[in-house]
Amino acid sequence: MATQQDLQTLLRFLSQDAKIPLASAMGKIKDLQAAKLITPDNIAKSDISGLQKVLGDEKLARQVLNAAKRVSKKRTNSDLSTSSTSTIPSPIKRVKTGFGAPMDPATFEASLTLPSSNLTASELEDVVLFTNRAPLVLAVAVTVLKYTMPTQPLSSRLSLAQAVCSANSQSKAKYLGIQNGASAEDEGWGEGQPLITVLNRQIRVMKRWGYTWKEEPEVKEEDLVSSQATVAGDDAQDTQETVAPDEPALWGVDLEALKKTNGPMTVGARQGSTSELPIYRPESTRAYLMKSFGIKPSGDAKPAKALAGKKAAEEKERNLGLLLASLDLLCQSWTPILSSEDLDKRAWGWYCSVRPEVNSGVAGWGGKGDVKLTDILRLRRTE
Questions:
Q1: pLDDT digits (tens, 9 = 90+) for 206-262
Q2: Labelling 198: which of 44, 57, 61, 226 has CA 20 to 30 A away?
Q3: Is 379 exposed, middle or buried (0-12, 13-18, 19+ CB in 10 A)?
Q4: φ and ψ at 369, to 5 degrees?
Q5: Domain spans of the chain, in order of start
Q6: 194 and 239 in contact (C-beta within 8 Å)?
Q7: Residue whose C-alpha is closest to residue 291's, from 268, 307, 269, 314
Q8: Would the pTM of this model clear 0.70, i.e. be above it?
Q9: What is the secondary structure of 318-333 as a DSSP string?
């Protein structure tokens, strides 16, 4: 079975060597994988008619086949040159997962664990946090997704939450005149990727086929590697449909990164291009959440001495746990009577009613304010 590294190498070959637009290349990954055409060498050994059946277009098939032969020939010449000048084998580099050190899915998910709290609702009511609006959007989205898409792992929920937060921020920036010009979504860079709705806003996603994060007995090492595989896209028919809650694990697509990756590139820019897929990384979302919720100092109190680094971080992590506990209690009260769709729609209204008050217009961009947990708890369903 193809590993995540294999699939990313194939995606780079299609987009950089075969000159296929990245969005289109993503949609061909699954078909090539099914035909066991994972490497340029595999593709170079195939015939045009077979490749045409896989890709569905003769011109595209010739383009990919020619690129594969060119890359394979270049690699063969390089290998011959190396073997003729040296008998010392080059050191074998340890293969890493696509986004850092080797890590199995269960360990990866555990590393993303968010703080929690055992305080009761009455104990949470007196807490007032101090933050700006974006982290609150993330916290609401991550929590609501636990109930609207319960089969999604935490890594996916964090990625999807960042996708909806970024989309919301872009819309607001455009409305305020902070951001000019069409967004990547407006220019069609999301075409070909599935859509889901989070907080009543549609976002583009990638399906993480084969990603198994729950521990199962007698899992072989090779299965742990293959379970990291991410297939970046689906066939044309499937990608136009809305993803159901029980679909495979998902990534939120970073359309702006997708646009930059496949935009005009100089030679130097191409050499420095990243091998990562254009997605919102859950580690970054988690790190942002963990440091975003402080406690507003009392107005009549003397300025307190700032907490030391470690203590300040622990305080903010604790605050995040309190917020997430309040949001959990809110969602738990409504889940028995609301469908996933209705819960998602209502969640955006909840956010709007408890978000920090900031100055209107550009002056309020990034501004901070109070988030009263009692306001969140007051939204719970009463018997």
A1: 999 888 887 544 434 444 334 334 434 443 344 444 444 457 899 999 998 888 876
A2: 226
A3: middle
A4: -160, -175
A5: 4-77, 105-298+307-377
A6: yes
A7: 314
A8: no
A9: HHHHHHHHHHHHHHHH
